[in-house]
Structure formats: C-alpha cells, structure tokens
C-alpha cells in the first residue's frame, strides 16, 4: 500500500490531538478549530472503544487450543513422513564431489549415472499408499454434529454433517454445470 | 486444558503460572503443554485483533489458528528481543493482512458476485448485557455503523487507528508492531481519523449519543 | 585387449556422464507441475425414484456403483441419483465454488500440495441468504485429499432425500 504524504503541519496536529508533551499547537492554527478537531477525534475514539473489543476469546476456546495442538502434531507427523527429500540433497553433494575426482573412470561414471537415475531422482512419496485424512472439521452451527468415517471398502472418506436444517424444498437444486473454467457453477436462479 | 488467565505481560514467579519467557524456553525444547498455556494466555488478544481486521468470525478463528501454528514453527528462531506478546501480535497482524490481500485478488477473479463475502458487521461479535430490547437494538445499530465505517478503511489504516484508539499504543510501539516508520504511523492515523470522522459525524454529533 | 583410456578422454567421459546425471536429476524439478484436477460429483440420495431431483445425469462412469458402499455410510436411503459432475483445475490459493444452488455453495480451496502429491483442501459448506444478507458457515474442514481416496460430504436433507457431494482428486 502506498501511503499518502502528510504535511509537517498535519503531522504536528496529529501529535497535538494526542496531547503528546512535545507537541505544541501548530502555528497558524486557530485554537477553536484545533479544539473541535481534537473533540471529534476523541469522540470517534470513544465510539471505537465502546464497540470494538480489545480482547475477545474465540468461540469454543478449549476446542481452539485443542485444534492448535492437533495441527502442530499433524505438521510434525508430516515432516517425519518426508525425510527422503532432505536426504536426497546431501547425496547429491556427495555425488558431485565424487564425479569431480580425477581418478574417476568412464565406467565408474556410467555406474554412478545409473545410480543417479534410479536412486537420486527425487521420486515423490507414494501418494497411492496413503489415504485421505480429515485434519479438522468444525461446525459453528448449534445442534450440528459431524461424523468422519472411512468406508468399509476404503473407497472414500465420509464426512456426515448431521442436524442441519433441511434445505428448503421450494429451492431448486440444479446440479453442477460445466461452463466456467474456474467454477463448478450453477448460476441459475431458482 | 488449562483455562486460567493471566496478564499477557505476566512476569510472576509463580511456578503454577510461569512468565512468558519461561514458557517460551520450554516451547523451544518442544514442550507443547507450555505452548498450550501461551495460547490460552494470548488467544483473546490475537483473536480480538484479527476479528476487527477481517470482520468475519469464522475466518478470524482460522487465522488465529494459523497465527499460533506459525508462532510454534518460528519459536526456535525467537530470541526474545521483543516480548512474546508483541511478537505474536505482529504475526497475527501480518497473517490477517496477508489474508485480506489474498481475498482482494480472489475477489477480482470471482465468477459470481453473489458469493462475495458480506460483512456481518457487529452482529454477534460483542457480547451484550441484559439491556432493554430497544436499547439493544440501538446498540446493535451503532455497532453495525462503526464496523461498517472501519471496513471502509484500508487494513493498514484500520490497524493503526485500532492500535492507537482502542489499545492506546504509543506511535513508536505501533511503528514497531507494523514494521513501518513513525511518519507512516502519523500519516495513517491522520487520514484514518479524517475518514472515520466523516463517516461517523452524524453518530457522535447526535444528541442521543453519550 | 582395449588400450587404456587417455587421461583427457576419461575426464571428458566423466564430465559428459556427470552432465547427463545432473540433467536427468534436475529436469523433473524444473518443470512446474500442472495444477491438480478435482472432480466433483453431486448425488441425491432418496428412497423414492428421484423424480423430485430435476436434472439427473447418466452415470456413464459407474460412479454410483463405485461409491455406493461409502455413500451408504452416510445415509440409509435406498437409491442414489447422480445430479451433477464436473472437473476443474484446483489452482493454489483460488477457490472453486460448487453451486447446486446459489444459497447452498461448497467452497473448495487448494491451500498447498504435500510432498507425496496429495493436496491440502480447505473446504466450507455455506448457506447464503440474500434477503436479509446472511452468510452462514454450516461446516468447514481442512482435509488432506489423495487421489486414492475421495472425500464424501453428506450435506442437508432436501425434499425427500439428502444432498451428498463427492470430491475426488484426479491422479
């Protein structure tokens, strides 16, 4: 964001409004006008203090803490899952040094190349071996509960949102349409 | 889960209520229970700041979560040059600011403006006491006006005016928290005040107010 | 018997092999992977014939049969009708909005790709009203979505049945 410049007089006026000890009233400013300005600023400040809470606990504060700690555990578990990438970097360094040695023969280089292709290429961890995981699920609605289940045949992870008010029968559900690239859109009005 | 609360700037030597630097040290050794206490101690300020920045409780909840997660990850590099309270506040502020910027970009790429975010201004954010229904309605209306006026400000201007007028921070503190110069703080404060005075003139000039 | 390789020739072959090894190692890193593709399906689960769901789609890919057991985890309904299907690119940090109705969208946001190729999906099921303006988040979640296992979100009741989303990451 580009900030608008402020004149020295406005800057001094701002300090005067805040009653800072080193801020006399700027020269050329009428005291009545300045006092009105100060009163208006004070009124706005009072309104803000009355209606904007300085501190506010999040809804479900205990759940809030529990979720933070859960996310920390999940993140740490993920980091443990992917040590291969870090290892690959150090192997690459070792390989580089080895390839630069003068005694390296063509045959050794070829063998090393084969190793490089099969062992060093940073293969992604096998996505197919791990399943979908619901890290957090939260419903702010009262009387609503969520259940997370894995299908018996492991074909899907199911989040069932129970206790929701029924979607009104007079509203039309039109499926998902395919016209927009960024949206799975049903822009039709009921 | 601990539910006790003490001042964020707690320096007490009470072993049951250790000061922030002690808890930070424990966290740096991987003690998540110590972090739990820090979260409890600072969450209301973090969440309170974010909710006034983004105006949406549900998103504020997620952003406050992100703030603490980022703090946990960065704790090994935290050297205590500022207090934990200032540090976490800065993370919260930047997290909210980044989110607002992302939303701005997404908003322009949005296909359908019926799904633009609407500000549920002043709705259920502030707990109300047992006031008469007519008084409560007036308070709700006033709250809505104030939150709408704040939403008219840029996030940067909003942050400065809230830090100054609601939290009573000094210019130097604001500059340090937001990572900008004193001149920038004064400029933002000057223009934010002007705009709010304009938007709320009928409210504070009304004989009913105060 | 082959003569021993000249010192310079050996260095040349070594350098050549090293260059090849480096290229085959680094080339896959340089090509930016395309954004992952998400396919979304919308099912209507009911005990009836589904006539109240106006736009049934032909289930040419056999999705109902494929996910029937999983869908039964969420509902006791006897019949499943496919009423919507679409595939889109899930670009990082952009939202995809699934809108069976403007008042009932599902927001999907790809918030990042995991080292194993799975994506971190942040999703919110909304209820939106325009008169008066009111947006309510019915449920929200962060889910790691892999190509192996789709995510099913069993939403609200509608008419005589229930609306169920399925989100699948294409491999």
Description:
The complex is a heterotrimer of chains A (190), B (210) and C (171). Chain A folds into three domains: 44 residues, no CATH class; 63 residues; 32 residues, no CATH class. Helices cover 45% and strands 9% of the residues of chain A. Chain A contains five helices and three strands. In chain A, a hairpin with a 6-residue loop joins β2 and β3. The longest helix of chain A has 21 residues. Chain B has a domain of 110 residues: Orthogonal Bundle (Rna Polymerase Sigma Factor, Chain: A). In chain B, α3 crosses α4, α5 runs antiparallel to α8 and α7 packs across α8. The longest helix of chain B is centred in the middle third of the chain and has 26 residues. Chain C has 171 residues and is of the alpha+beta class. Chain C contains two helices and eight strands, in the order αβαβββββββ. In chain C, the strands form two sheets. In chain C, strands 2-1-8-7 form a four-stranded antiparallel β-sheet. In chain C, strands 3-4-5-6 form a four-stranded antiparallel β-sheet, with no helix packed on it. In chain C, 46% of the residues are buried. Classes of the chains: A mainly alpha (190), B mainly alpha (210), C alpha+beta (171). Chains in contact: A-B, A-C, B-C. Chains A and C meet through α4, α5, β1, β2 and β3 of A and α1, β1, α2, β2 and β3 of C.
CATH class of the domain at 9-118 in chain B, named Mainly Alpha
**pLDDT below 50 for ≥5 consecutive residues: which ranges of chain C?**
none
Helical content class of chain C: 10-25%
Largest sheet of chain B, if any? Answer: none
Low-confidence stretches of chain B: 1-13, 105-133
Oligomer: heterotrimer
Strand order of the largest sheet of chain C: 2-1-8-7
Return the string of H and E elements of chain B.
HHHHHHHH
Helical run tally of chain B: 8
Count of β-strands of chain C: 8
Q: Secondary-structure element order of chain C, as H and E?
A: HEHEEEEEEE
Name the helicity range of chain B. 55-70%
N-to-C CA distance of chain B: 41 Å
Q: Give the helix/strand class of chain C.
A: alpha+beta
CATH superfamily of the domain at 9-118 in chain B: RNA polymerase sigma factor, region 2, helix turn helix motif
Number of helical runs of chain C? 2
What percentage of the residues of chain B does DSSP assign to strands (E)? Answer: under 5%
**Strands of chain B, total number:** 0
Shape of chain C: elongated
Mean pLDDT of chain B: 75
């Amino acid at each position: 964001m580009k900030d608008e410049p402020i004149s020295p007089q406005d800057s001094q006026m701002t300090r005067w409004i805040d009653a800072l000890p080193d801020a006399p009233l700027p020269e050329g400013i009428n005291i009545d006008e300045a006092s009105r300005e100060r009163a208006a600023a004070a009124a706005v400040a009072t309104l803000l203090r009355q209606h904007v809470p300085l501190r506010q606990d999040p809804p479900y504060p205990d759940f809030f803490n529990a979720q933070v700690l859960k996310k920390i555990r999940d993140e740490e578990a993920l980091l443990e899952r992917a040590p291969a990438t870090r290892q690959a970097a150090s192997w690459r360094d070792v390989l580089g040094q080895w390839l630069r040695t003068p005694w390296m023969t063509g045959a050794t280089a070829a063998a090393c190349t084969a190793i490089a292709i099969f062992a060093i290429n940073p293969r992604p961890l096998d996505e197919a071996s791990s399943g979908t995981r619901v890290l957090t699920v939260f419903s702010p609605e009262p009387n609503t509960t969520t259940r997370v289940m894995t299908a018996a045949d492991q074909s899907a992870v199911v989040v069932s949102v129970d206790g929701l008010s029924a979607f009104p029968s007079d509203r039309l559900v039109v499926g998902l349409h395919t016209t927009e690239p960024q949206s799975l859109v049903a822009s039709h009005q009921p | 889960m601990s539910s006790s609360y003490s001042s964020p700037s707690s320096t007490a030597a009470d072993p049951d209520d250790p000061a922030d630097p002690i808890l930070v040290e424990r966290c740096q050794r991987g003690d998540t229970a110590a972090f739990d206490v820090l979260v409890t101690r600072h969450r209301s300020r973090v969440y309170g700041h974010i909710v006034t920045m983004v105006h949406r409780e549900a998103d504020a909840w997620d952003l406050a979560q992100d703030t603490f997660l980022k703090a946990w990850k960065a704790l090994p590099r935290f050297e205590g040059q500022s207090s934990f309270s200032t540090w976490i506040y800065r993370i919260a502020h930047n997290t909210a600011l980044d989110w607002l910027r992302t939303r701005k970009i997404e908003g322009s790429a949005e296909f359908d403006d019926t799904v633009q975010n609407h500000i549920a201004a002043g709705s259920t954010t502030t707990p109300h006491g047992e006031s008469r229904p007519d008084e409560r309605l007036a308070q709700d209306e006033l709250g809505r006006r104030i939150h709408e006026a704040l939403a008219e400000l840029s996030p940067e201007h909003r942050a400065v005016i809230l830090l100054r007028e609601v939290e009573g921070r000094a210019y130097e503190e604001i500059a340090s928290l937001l990572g900008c110069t004193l001149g920038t703080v004064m400029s933002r404060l000057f223009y934010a005040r002007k705009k709010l005075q304009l938007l709320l003139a009928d409210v504070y000039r009304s004989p009913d107010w105060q | 018997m082959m003569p021993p390789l000249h010192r310079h020739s050996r260095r040349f072959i070594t350098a050549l092999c090293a260059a090849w090894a480096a290229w085959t190692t680094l080339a896959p890193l340089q090509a930016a992977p395309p954004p992952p593709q998400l396919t979304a399906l919308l099912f209507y689960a009911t005990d009836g014939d589904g006539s109240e769901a106006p736009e049934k789609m032909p289930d040419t890919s056999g999705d109902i049969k494929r996910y029937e057991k999983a869908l039964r985890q969420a509902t006791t309904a006897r019949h499943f009708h496919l009423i919507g299907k679409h595939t889109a690119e899930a670009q990082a940090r952009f939202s995809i909005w699934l809108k069976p109705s403007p008042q009932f969208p599902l927001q999907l946001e790809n918030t990042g790709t995991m080292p194993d190729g799975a994506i971190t999906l942040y999703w919110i099921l909304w209820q939106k009203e325009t008169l008066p303006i009111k947006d309510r988040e019915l449920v929200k979640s962060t889910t790691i979505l892999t190509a192996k296992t789709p995510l099913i979100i069993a939403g609200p009741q509608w008419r005589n049945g229930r609306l169920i989303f399925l989100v699948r990451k294409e491999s």
